[in-house]
User: Fold Glyoxalase-like domain-containing protein from Pseudozyma antarctica.
Amino acid sequence: MASRSASSGAIPALDHLILLVNDPRTASSQIDSALERAICTFSALGFQVVRGGLHADGITSNALIVFPDGVYIELVQFEAAPGLSSGEKRADFEARRKRHWWYNSRPGWIDWCLQDGISDGMIQIINDNAHRLRQTAHEEEQRESQDGMRIVAPRLQYLPPQEGGRVTMTGEELRWKVSFPAPPEGSLGNPRSAVPFWCADLTARQLRVPLTRSMHENRSPGIAEITLLYARDTVAAYLDVSLALNQPIDAATLPISSELQLVPNQIPHRLLAAPAPAPKPDTTLAKGEGHPHHQAQMPQRFIRVVVKVAEDPQDFAWIERHGEGLYEVAIYGACPCLAREPCEGGKI
Assistant:
């Protein structure tokens, strides 16, 4: 990977969103492929779905919905059994599956990933910012201890990267490094999906994210916004998300209730960049002319990150089943006039 430095104010890029299509707990009894069903569903909605392949651990496989701006949705399935050529005993395979970081997840949106973070130094910047703010919070707490004030400190800390990979359907080996947030322990750590993880490619990104397969029959150009849902310690959760997106803030500037929770509907949104400039739709395509890859480049696209505080039974039921974090994804739909900006389509 080419080495480059991120500025302290750089907005990281959203790499991909992960949609789990089957339940890891019942994967062994799966007869029909949940991944194939998901591919059929999204294809019927007008998306071009690219079969990805089996991950290096043999436990999960995927398919991709790639958008022109470089962001993609990863459809993930837990495999029912070890591959025939692996020689692994089924009991050993199932034991490994139970140790997978997504084993306790339920079908739906389960995680979100930012691009790189290693070669550009972004993860180190974020960890340094979080450490500095924790120190400041600790010092303030010492000064204010006599008044009984509670100081909110960030819990975020990213772990050292670990290597992963998969083999594509055409037999190409892909390799990358991922950096996950430290799990909750004491006053540090976050549950998975509450904050994003990072992926830095060791092989060319275009092999992992085939932009040549990013044009969709429904003409969707990509993700409009993502919504994160939290119910507990919402101020700390928002501070951690803001840090993870390299947009640290002062908690004193937030709308906070007397219970030290965020005030719903008054929470400033955050931003993520898209990995690559999106192509400008070619109006000749609407007439059945031209080629989808012969398109001018549009300016950098940004994706809004909305933070929501759980308020109704549906929200709390979601958190009970899925945990806090990634909750809803809004995807742009095509406008009747392709020369205009796309309108916001459905949320899933």
